Amino acid sequence: MSRKPTVVHRPQGTRLSPAQRAVVRRCRALSRVADPLELELVVSGAVADVRPDEEFWAGLIEHAVSVPGARHHTLLRVLAAVLTGRPREWAANAAVPVGPALAVGDAWICDRSLDAGYLVLICAYRFAEQAHAMVFLIDELAGGAVRRAFVTRDVDTARQRLARHGRLTRIAADAAHWLLAKSYDRLDRGAVDVGGDVRRTRLLARRRIALAFG
Predict the structure, then answer these.
(1) Is-contact 119 112, C-beta < 8 A?
(2) List of residues 6+ apart from 79 with CB closer than 8 A
(3) What superkingdom does the record give (predicted)?
(4) Is the Cβ–Cβ distance between 26 and 46 less than 8 Å?
(5) Whole-angstrom distance, CA of residue 10 vs CA of residue 61
(6) How many other C-beta atoms can be found within 10 angstroms of the C-beta atom of residue 46?
(7) What was the pLDDT predicted at 10?
(8) Staple 145 to which of 39, 104, 184, 192, CB 3.0 to 4.6 Å?
(9) 145-152 β-sheet, strand order
(10) Which value, in Å, is the radius of gyration of the alpha carbons in the chain?
(11) What are the residue ranges of helices labelled H in 18-139?
(12) CA angle, corner 155, sides to 151 and 160, nearest 5?
């Protein structure tokens, strides 16, 4: 069965906004990238300086659908894998999500909330045999705001380095991602100012939170 060519209904000839055009331009290299984690990082980094809502993604996806070519097809495939909610469904209606599938692994917490006012989460994930982790610094003094977030392919080294700063305890993956969901909800509401690393990895975090909750 063929996939639907139209994602949303918009006036014929509707142009992309300057922010949407900038994202399309930043994603031009996707067709030359094979690594699934790097594909995510390219797209997430492309929207680091905007706050994309459903209308933003709808326009971007429809533009990619309406302009044939390998570059836009790759963008659709990555969006179908990385996005969550209705935007993910719209992109998946137009292209098969890029693989391999992402799986949630173990999680650990270094809780320094009582003596230092923060906690750190390490959450492990896997693309087939390729493991990686995301490390999050959560500021408990600011109501649980996520202050730092970065990706590493060396999970063991990240755990060893974090263990130097405090006791590292295994935590259930759903509990870890529940903490992250609260932090990123505050970020999405604009309730807290965060650094560039958090914004550059925001789509990755949101995808993993959604995946952990099934």
Answers:
(1) yes
(2) 43, 57, 60, 61, 64, 87, 88, 91
(3) Bacteria
(4) yes
(5) 12
(6) 22
(7) 46
(8) 192
(9) 145-152, 130-139, 118-127, 102-112, 169-171
(10) 18
(11) 18-26, 36-46, 54-66, 70-82, 85-94
(12) 115
On whether the pTM is more than 0.90, the answer is no
Which of helix, strand or coil describes residue 211? helix
63-87 exposure pattern, b = at least 16 Cβ within 10 A, e = fewer? bbbeeeeebbbbbbbbbbbbbeeeb
Q: Is the dihedral of CA 91, 38, 161, 149 positive or negative?
A: negative
Distance CA 53, CA 55 (A): 6
Burial class of residue 180, CB neighbours in 10 A (0-12, 13-18, 19+): buried
Distance CA 4, CA 93 (A): 6
pLDDT digits over 17-37, tens only? 999 999 999 999 898 999 999
Antiparallel, parallel or unpaired: β 102-112 and 145-152: unpaired
Task: Compute the distance between CA of residue 214 and CA of residue 36 in angstroms, rounded to an integer.
Answer: 20
Residue 190: what pLDDT?
A: 67
